[in-house]
Specification:
heterodimer; A: about 700 residues; mainly alpha; 5 strands; elongated; disordered N terminus; B: about 850 residues; six-stranded antiparallel β-sheet; three-stranded antiparallel β-sheet; 10 strands; globular; Phosphatidylinositol 4-kinase beta (chain B); lipid metabolism (chain B); 1-phosphatidylinositol 4-kinase activity (chain B); PI4KB-PIK1_PIK (chain B)
């Protein structure tokens, strides 16, 4: 190859010394963009072309600069280039394959750059020609599939995935990328699965494969039958699903770690906190520093897996020892021994198995725990669009999990106790919880903690109504499961109750501002109904009889809030207006709470009067509550334990469209960077060949 | 061939044994027991009468040909038998101690042995007499007649050997004591005629002799061991483990070249695989000779039948273990939704099926089980490195869930009594047991019972996710189907890859809609309340409920809940053990994707890593032997020997005792005296329930008191004594027996543990039950004394070459023998029992020791 280049250089120097020096490959590109068939004069033109180092910028800019008329003129040549690229993928010569892959990349990108507005069909025509498109794409996909599944070099596989990512993200809206229709027909799903199921390839390409899969699943999701959706939904091979889980787990762990590092950096001690506080007066804000780029692509992949594939739920609970990526950067961290019983000769390395490090300080973790930690970081700050989207997606995933029976089973499994260190926002009125003291509890406690944490930290003017709704619904779904299965969770429900009451309080005090944007009655109804769950069904899931008394105590103690809420909804429901209906629902829902307040308040007052006590202690109030149950009658409300199941369509469709668009943009940006720096790769191959 | 011939040779045997070595190399694998040998072609229907093939039909099936054989053999034996064998035997006889003979006489007098011995080939001298009734083979009558007829003509020893009373226990004893190669070789051959289970019991003794005794004994034993190894995977592994464990006390340099190590290597290299291919190729030729063997051979292809569906594109996970191992290792891209891979997989498996199932290479036959055991041990080792119980438990659960991925497989729990395949380990149920530095743990294992784990097909994997499996169950038309049929119907459910096109997004939507139905269905069953809410929906009439009712229901339900132990992260096993076994089985079965199979069973096992279980095994054998002695003598003593599996000198498995918690846990939880606890559990002292529990308690106490005395079991704190649901006590942990005791603190000098609380349960020291207790002990001791040798030999053989602490010092055997008090009269024995009981009752040391345990280990 170098010889060819040398020759070219020599030739150039003698023949056209005045002209600026041009690479041979550039000259060849020029030839393609000329009218003539480049192979006419040089039959070995295509052979030679793929021996040249690709000049992506030039090729792309050339493609962009072609204007309307020229397109017609050079279409044959571009078709031919595409055709030869596909052919070159089958070459034995690795250099040619590499160059062909990159050229294809440039072709896809260049053509799309140029024709942002053009229809997909024009693009297909320009690249491949209508009549041959089907065959060309079939060939391309087959070649890519065999490259990915075969035992070609890892860099080559990586490049294949990059090309696919590039192809999938060339348009802002993935559904408008008509070429993907061929990717649907010629599925590479199996190749992706294979990468995920194999420990070593998962380590190197797992991330790209998972992102690619997540994007492909979102191609015309709502309009047509997407075979990737169908296939993903029925995968039941554990190593593969586990592989997917591991990739997501690692990505999220990495994020959590980065965040923690930054946090520690920022809170290096008293002095640094002080300086950063002072500094924050001048510089934008501290949070900026703390925000690590969230990873929506991987979160989307997690969502699709949880949402589409029922078997993936088991992977969530699949425990891995927590892997510190920083310490083991090179070794891909396999979590499933891929060798089944009986195939490997008995090995003594069971003890020093890399997958299960022996460090006793490592807490056992699983994907769900890592995800919960991730979510606890992400939902802290929902100010910018990305983070809001991430938080929303996290809550959607949790919604799906809370609805799944199997997931609920292991969330509530009394034998599976974990310490989950959720991140809690530092706030003025509370200290940062000491991590070490978190008790080991069933996982559902961590979910509830996370929900409570969200509720108490997001009562702000720019009210994230959508997130609150999801949050309250998740709690409701968990309660429904507990009621149904009579699981008496030992959880400090009081924290939840007071968080919910505070939320109602906030809604009341910001009624006017909030009503301008949101239907606060809907949220209020959900919250009140949570209380109704506890009041009417508490016998089925509360852990102690005392906890039922405490519920009444809490309601009576905070009766002001409920009174005010009732006044407010009564007022709105008697007026005519758009909220009439919604508000009257809340009035009905409040019936039991009000009955409790009206029943016990006089009793407590008289108790105080009789005993001449001005301030009753908690124990005294509880005593009054206990002795006066029998005269209280409650109304059984309908459908408290029913909930609407999550469905993506039509409610969430718009959100996912937008999300996928932003992910596409992000991926495209990152992929282009990577493909350009392929020197390493070339070096590798030049030594081979 | 020669193996069979050995069998028949009463005395002809050592000649055969000598030939054996020569034949060993040249002869092809002795292909079961049925290939006709050229040397004895005159008796073509030779078959092994007494080696019932473990895999198939009743051993009796082989009896019909037996009569024919006897005649054929007797002709042969005429040639070989007479001179050599009898000479040798008579010589030996002189050396045999008189005591033994006396013993044997008592044996003879004791009447019929429990098991009907298969007929042994008759020596020439009595042939004529037996000929007329040669058609009544193996009948007790003929055996008796034989004895009756030749008392004077034959040497006692040979007569004994040929009598139907000669059992494995005696065989082992003579093998050990006799210095005569002839006798040893004879007994080596006789082993073939005993039922497998009987010999298996003495396997530790056999192998220990093989390892530590001289060439002749080894040569006598080896053919039998090799033969059995060829027949059975589990026997092979059992041998390999025991050989490893009992070789470990040898010096490292001798160990490497020892016979035991060599045999172990031979077994593990799996050269002793059955000659399946031959059996398979010539089934026709074999059938007439041995119906049972033909059945074995036949079950190979039969087992293959349900796997032989390469044309069907199902994704049966396991066509055989061979395919499992292949499909999982080399071809991981196999997924349900990957038709491309799937089809190639099928080709693979169908081609590999033949080659691997029958000409099985080393990995396939033994490796799954070895790998399984190794995984369990690996877990134990890693757990030991973790500092807290909580971390251990978490790690255990996560490790087991990984293990689950590789199940079902052709693996089994060696402690189980039936053939099965392990399908799942309910990982969240596993608990770490209390131990200071080791990490023994208890796992529950779901298995599917099968006819034969070597030939039955491994069950198909069902995904963990419960909902999917519910769907599968719905699709089952009939629960009584055979496994193969079920396999077929199961594959239908996940078999989407046939027509991907049929799947649309809508279908997925439908699936999701299905879920709430399942939800409501199940919730109706569970909660009456949701029914209430539904009815109220319909009626539209407001329903009122009293708050007081809700509150009352809550406290009632909380009170009703079965008294479980409180979850304590420092004692995770307490909760798990407290739950009644039936309850646990039901609960796990409900949660298991395999629970709907009629042959689903739950087993449990304690995995011990870093502990030497050889002493436990020895104790198990002694207990088992005493148990059968007491049964034989009809003494109602109750003991519960629990199975021990020795895997190496520092690892093994234990069969947990069902429905039993330790006295420590009982006391800690109930805070009651033992008697009050009995009253609480079983009712008032006059009730039948209490009385039977009390009787159980007394009988078990008597049994274990004797055992503790005879074996000098020490370390008897309340954590080592279990109480089961019927009132029996069960002693566990025989880490300190015979010559060893813990820390030499000088505690526990009493003969056994008998606290006043125990006596109270028995109704006080003056009660009838207490006298019954003492009487039982006396009867038990007399019975044990009568059969002392059966106990002694077990211990004595194991002492050979052993460094175990229980054999420390030189007086172990003498001490043990003395404790049987052969010289005392029954009156004197009664006195002795009284003394022992009094001493133990009054013994301060028991109390002291409990106090010591409470201080050091927190055991009450």
């Amino acid at each position: 190859m170098s010889q060819v280049e040398k020759k070219a250089g020599l030739l150039r120097r003698t023949s056209s010394s005045k002209k600026p020096l041009k690479e041979k490959v550039v000259l060849m590109y020029d030839e393609i963009f000329a009218k003539e068939d480049p192979a006419k004069n040089n039959p070995r033109f295509w052979d030679e072309l793929f021996l040249m180092k690709v000049n992506l910028e030039y090729l792309e800019s050339k493609l962009e600069s072609v204007d309307g008329e020229e397109v017609q003129r050079i279409q044959d040549n571009i078709n031919s280039l595409f055709h030869h690229c596909v052919q070159a993928l089958g070459e034995e010569h690795q250099i040619k394959v590499v160059n062909a892959l990159q050229t294809l990349c440039a072709l896809f990108r260049g053509v799309h750059q140029k024709n942002k507005s053009a229809s997909g069909f024009d693009i297909i025509n320009m690249l491949m020609g209508f009549d041959k498109a089907e065959q060309r794409m079939k060939d391309l996909m087959e070649r890519l599939d065999s490259l990915l599944c075969g035992d070609s070099s890892e860099s080559l596989k990586s490049l294949c995935l990059k090309l696919l990512l590039c192809l999938v993200t060339v348009t802002d809206n993935i559904s408008q990328n008509t070429i993907l229709e061929y990717v649907m027909i010629n599925s590479i799903f199996e190749a992706i699965l294979q990468i995920l199921s194999d420990v070593s390839s998962r380590g190197q390409h797992g991330y790209d494969a998972v992102v690619l899969l997540a994007l492909l699943v979102n191609y015309r999701k709502y309009e047509s039958v997407n075979p990737y959706i169908v296939k993903l939904s029925i995968v039941d091979d554990e190593p593969t699903l586990d592989g997917m889980g591991v990739v997501v787990h690692q990505a999220l762990t990495e994020y959590n770690r980065q965040y923690k590092d930054k946090e520690e950096e920022n809170q290096g001690g008293f002095f640094s906190t002080l300086t950063s506080m002072v500094g924050s007066m001048f510089i934008a804000d501290v949070d900026e520093k703390l925000s690590v780029q969230t990873n929506e692509a991987i979160l989307l992949a997690l969502y699709e897996a949880v949402h589409l594939n029922r078997n993936f739920i088991t992977v969530l609970a699949q425990s891995h020892p927590e892997i510190d990526i920083a310490t083991t950067p090179t070794t891909p961290t396999p979590t499933t021994p891929t060798t089944p019983l009986g195939t490997t000769p008995p090995s003594l390395d069971m003890m020093n198995n890399p997958e299960l490090p022996l460090d006793p300080n490592l807490q056992t973790s699983n994907l769900l725990i890592t995800f919960l930690k991730y979510a606890s970081i992400v939902i802290q700050d929902t100010k910018d669009e990305h983070r809001l989207n991430s938080a929303r997606l996290c809550l959607i995933i949790l919604t799906c999990i809370a609805e799944d029976q199997y997931a609920d089973a292991f969330l509530h499994d009394d034998n599976m106790n974990f310490r989950v260190n959720l991140h809690r926002m530092p706030m003025r009125h509370r200290k940062k919880a000491v991590d070490k003291n978190i008790p080991s509890r069933p996982l559902v406690c961590a979910v509830l903690d996370l929900m409570v944490e969200f509720i108490v930290t997001h009562m702000m003017k720019d009210f994230p109504m959508d997130l609150y709704l999801r949050c309250v619904q998740i709690i409701h779904k968990l309660l429904c499961y507990q009621k149904k299965c009579r699981i008496r969770l030992h959880y400090t429900w009081r924290e939840l109750w007071s968080a919910l009451i505070n939320l109602l309080k906030f809604l009341l005090s910001n009624e006017t501002t909030l009503l301008a944007k949101h239907n606060i009655f809907h949220l209020a109804l959900l919250v009140v109904n949570l209380f109704n769950m506890f009041i009417t069904y508490g016998d089925t899931f509360l852990p102690t009889s005392n906890s039922y008394d405490e519920l009444y105590y809490e309601i009576v103690r905070m009766h002001q809030v409920f009174d005010n809420l009732y006044c407010m909804v009564l007022r709105v429901s008697t007026n005519t207006g758009q909220w009439k209906e919604a508000a009257s629902k809340v009035t009905h829902a409040l019936v039991n709470v009000r009955a409790i307040i009206n029943h016990f308040n006089p009793k407590i007052e008289s108790y105080a009067a009789v005993n001449h006590i001005s301030q009753l202690s908690e124990e005294q109030v509880l005593e009054v509550v206990r002795s006066n149950y029998d005269t209280l009658t409650l109304k059984l409300q309908d459908g408290l334990d029913q909930f609407e199941r999550y469905s993506e369509q039509p409610k969430e469709a718009a959100f996912f469209k937008e999300l996928v668009r932003s992910i596409s943009l992000n991926v495209r940006k990152n992929v282009s960077l990577n493909t350009l720096s392929q020197d390493v790769l070339l070096k590798e191959f030049s030594t081979i060949s | 061939m020669k193996l069979q011939s050995n069998l028949h040779g009463g005395g002809r045997s050592f000649l055969a044994a000598m030939m054996e070595e020569a034949e060993q190399d040249t002869s092809p694998a002795p292909s079961d027991q049925n290939s006709p040998s050229p040397s004895i072609s005159s008796s073509p229907s030779l078959s092994l009468p007494s080696t019932p093939s473990s895999s198939c039909g009743p051993p009796q099936a082989a009896t019909p040909p037996l009569c024919v054989i006897s005649e054929g053999v007797s002709e042969l034996s005429l040639v070989i038998d007479a001179e050599v064998a009898q000479l040798a035997c008579q010589e030996v006889l002189q050396k045999v101690k008189l005591r033994q003979v006396d013993d044997d006489v008592t044996h003879l007098q004791n009447g019929a042995g429990p098991q009907a011995e298969p007929a042994i080939a008759k020596p020439s001298k009595i042939r004529e007499e037996d000929d007329p009734e040669g058609l009544a083979p193996g009948s007790v009558k003929s055996a008796r007649r034989r004895q009756r007829h030749n008392p004077s003509k034959q040497s006692w020893l040979l007569r004994l050997f040929e009598s139907k009373l000669f059992d494995v226990s005696m065989a082992i004893s003579y093998l050990h004591n006799s210095k005569e190669p002839g006798v040893q070789a004879y007994i080596g051959n006789r082993l073939f005629s005993f039922p497998h289970e009987d010999v298996d019991f003495f396997l530790p003794q056999l192998l220990n002799m093989y390892i530590h005794m001289d060439e002749d004994v080894g040569d006598a034993i080896k053919p039998y061991v090799v033969h059995r190894c060829r027949q059975s995977i589990s026997f092979s592994l059992q041998c390999a483990w025991l050989l490893g464990a009992y070789s470990s006390d040898m010096h490292i340099s001798t160990q490497r070249h020892s016979r035991g190590t060599k045999l172990r290597k031979l077994i593990l290299s799996d050269e002793l695989k059955p000659a399946g291919p031959r059996a398979r190729r010539d089934p026709l030729m074999l059938t007439p000779f041995c119906p049972t063997a033909a059945h074995v051979g036949g079950s190979g292809p039969l087992g293959g039948d349900h796997g032989l569906s390469p044309s069907k594109r199902t994704h049966q996970r396991s066509k055989s273990d061979a395919t499992v191992s292949i499909s999982l290792s080399s071809n991981l891209k196999r997924t349900a939704s990957n038709p491309k891979v799937e089809s190639s997989q099928d080709e693979d498996s169908s081609s590999s099926y033949d080659s691997l199932e029958f000409d099985s290479g080393p990995p396939v036959r033994l490796a799954p089980q070895r790998e399984f055991i190794k995984s369990l041990m690996g877990i134990g080792k890693r757990l030991a490195t973790l500092p807290t119980k909580e971390q251990k438990t978490q790690r255990l659960i996560s490790e087991l869930s990984l293990l689950n991925h590789k199940l079902p497989a052709r693996v089994w729990l060696p402690t189980a009594a039936f053939d099965h395949h392990v399908v799942r380990v309910p990982h969240t149920q596993a608990v770490v047991l209390n131990s200071k530095d080791k990490a023994p743990y208890l796992i529950y294992v779901e298995v599917l019972e099968c006819e034969n784990f070597e030939t039955s097909s491994v069950p198909i994997r069902i995904p963990e996710n419960r909902i999917r499996s519910t769907r599968s169950v719905e699709n089952l038309p009939d629960c009584g189907m055979t496994a193969e049929q079920r396999a077929g119907s199961f594959s239908v459910v996940p078999n989407y890859d046939n027509d991907d096109e049929a799947w649309s997004v809508d279908d997925i939507g439908e699936l999701q809609v299905e879920l709430p139905e399942i939800h409501t269905n199940s919730c109706d069953n569970i909660s009456q309340f949701s029914v209430d809410s539904i009815t109220s929906l319909e009626s539209k009439e407001p329903v009122f409920i009293a708050a007081g009712d809700i509150r009352r229901r809550l406290s009632e339900q909380l009170a009703q809940a079965p008294t479980t132990f409180k979850r304590d992260p420092e004692d995770p096993s307490a909760v798990a053990l407290k739950e009644p076994w039936e309850e646990k089985v039901r609960r796990i079965r409900e949660g298991s994707p395999y629970g709907h199979f009629p042959n689903w069973r739950l087993l449990s096992v304690i995995v011990k890593c870093g502990d030497d279980l050889r002493q436990e095994l020895l104790a198990f054998q002694v207990l088992q032997q005493l148990k059968s002695i007491w049964e034989q003598e009809r003494v109602p003593l109750w003991i519960k020997p629990y199975k021990i599996l020795v895997l190496s000198a520092d690892s093994g498995m234990i069969e947990p005792v069902m429905n039993a918690v330790s006295l420590h846990q009982v006391k800690k939880q109930s805070q009651l005296s033992l008697l009050d606890y009995f009253l609480q559990e079983h009712g008032a002292p006059t009730t039948e329930a209490f009385l039977s529990a009390q009787r159980n308690f007394v009988q078990s106490c008597a049994g274990y008191s004797l055992i503790c005395y005879l074996l000098q079991v020490k370390d008897r704190h309340n954590g080592n004594i279990l109480l089961d649901a019927d009132g029996h006590i069960i002693h566990i942990d025989f880490g300190f027996i015979l010559s060893s005791s813990p820390k030499n603190l000088g505690f526990e000098t009493s003969a056994f543990k008998l606290t006043s609380e125990f006596v109270d349960v028995m109704g006080g020291p003056d009660g009838d039950m207490f006298n019954y207790y003492k009487m039982l002990m006396l009867q038990g001791l007399i019975a044990a004394r009568k059969h002392m040798d059966r106990v002694l030999q077990i211990v004595e053989i194991m002492q050979q070459g052993s460094q175990l602490p229980c054999f420390h010092g030189s007086s172990t055997m003498r001490g043990l023998k003395e404790r049987f008090h052969m010289s005392l009269t029954e009156e004197q024995l009664q006195l002795l029992i009284d003394q022992l009981v009094d001493g133990s009752m009054r013994s301060l040391t028991t109390k002291l020791y409990d106090g010591f345990q409470y201080l050091t280990n927190g055991i009450m």
